[in-house]
Amino acid sequence: MAEQSEKLLRTLLGQGFEAYWVGGCVRDELIGRPVHDMDMTTSALPEEMIGLFQHTIPTGIQHGTITVMLQGHAFEVTTYRVESTYENHRRPDEVTFVKEITEDLKRRDFTMNAIARAVDGTYIDPFGGQQDTAKKIIRCVGNPLERFNEDALRMVRCVRFASVFGYSIAKDTWKGLLSQRANLEYIALERIRVELEKVISGNNPLRGLELLSRSQLLDFAKIPVLSTRFDRDIVMGINKVSLEPICLRWAVLLYAGRFTSEEAGQQLRKWTFSNQDKDEICSILRLDEQVKKRIQIQDIGIAQEERRLSWIRLVLDSGRSTALNWLKLQRTLPEHRQSFPIEWLDLFSTWEQQMNIYQLKDLGITGREVMKVNNIPAGSWLGDLLQHLLLSVAAGIVDNDKNGLIEEIKRVNMNHG
Ligand code: ATP
Ligand code: MG
């Protein structure tokens, strides 16, 4: 990818334009983090770029951004620009193209994000970004108070970078943030959520949450929840949870915030999660509630088999992926916060792995066939009976073949008179 992006820059240079790598990729390379997208900036105007490259997509042409496709890679190239007046503490829709790279760098949020790198390896770094990255400091370009006032999202970005990189925040930048934090109410929750997700995807979510808590930023974003209620021990373990699926990290976060599954659902809706993501997260918390209710550790009188059947029933009800996610969640909790001793979790895992089927559709007999056997009209009995067969097969009590299942139906009928 680096090779193709260099070719792109050289093409622009060859036509007499200026062109640099800029922003996240320059920063990440400097501090030795994996580079995920190679953004570039140039003095060429969007229409000039379109004329120059064979495959371009006008991604954000009114903001000067063109996507150039080169040998199977997509690169975003943006014309040097400044942003016009900011309204409602958000980034404006209108921009003005400029001729000087330093003008463009000046509009960027933090010194570490305002460095350009030329193809010959030299840097344009008018605000001391290299020095700040060496010292692990996040510092606004220019006057922090003004920069946070212009665009309130920068405050959450500031906390995100501090948390993900483990950087400290320059004193005047932090002071500026505190003075402007109320403006966060103007920013769409969705954009704040994206930043928050990066915080919990990073290595030190606790640091991010503590900074959010100390600054009370989330209170001003109308999501006060996490600022006070989260359990530090649990948050500290979030980075042990796999990033795939990311819903698991959200589940742990909400768990650390002592949310019930219902409260979590309301919260996630407010945070503009899709229904699918919301359900995925809530189902983990719901299963947690049910396991605790139905399988209690104090019940020493209960036979192990009864416990196994309860667990299998819960796996069938919640779905296998939810059950596996719940097990992962439990295993990442610090020992003194675990609802079940580790031996129990091992047992749950084993029982889950030994299940023969996980869904009704895998049952060796259909509802229609069951009705034929009993020869009575469908009613609630049918669902109950199918669930019974599913559990029996899943638990290995009855074989999943038609004859065996018909035998079981007859046995149940006998027992019910
Ligand atoms: P990431 O690693 O998450 O992609 P990034 O710094 O590259 O971090 P982007 O959103 O990709 O973040 O933005 C690219 C660059 O655009 C930034 O490095 C920064 O120079 C500039 N930028 C992004 N958002 C803002 C903002 N709200 N205000 C000012 N400059 C910004
Ligand atoms: Mg980026």
Automatic annotation (TrEMBL):
InterPro entries xrefs: Bact_CCA-adding_enz_type3_sf, CCA-adding_enz_C, NT_sf, PolA_pol_head_dom, PolyA_RNA-bd
Keywords from the UniProt entry: Magnesium, Metal-binding, Nucleotide-binding, Nucleotidyltransferase, RNA-binding, Transferase, tRNA processing
Poly A polymerase head domain residues: 19-139
Domain tRNA nucleotidyltransferase/poly(A) polymerase RNA and SrmB- binding residues, every copy: 166-220
Single GO MF descriptor: tRNA binding
Superkingdom as given in the UniProt entry: Bacteria
Gene3D superfamilies, per database record: 1.10.246.80, Beta Polymerase, domain 2, cca-adding enzyme, domain 2
CCA-adding enzyme C-terminal domain segment(s): 249-407
One biological process term in Gene Ontology: tRNA processing
Cofactor requirement: Mg(2+)
Pfam families, A to Z: PolyA_pol, PolyA_pol_RNAbd, tRNA_NucTran2_2
Family the entry assigns: Belongs to the tRNA nucleotidyltransferase/poly(A) polymerase family.
UniProt cross-references to NCBIfam families, sorted A to Z: PRK13299.1
Protein name in UniProt: CCA tRNA nucleotidyltransferase
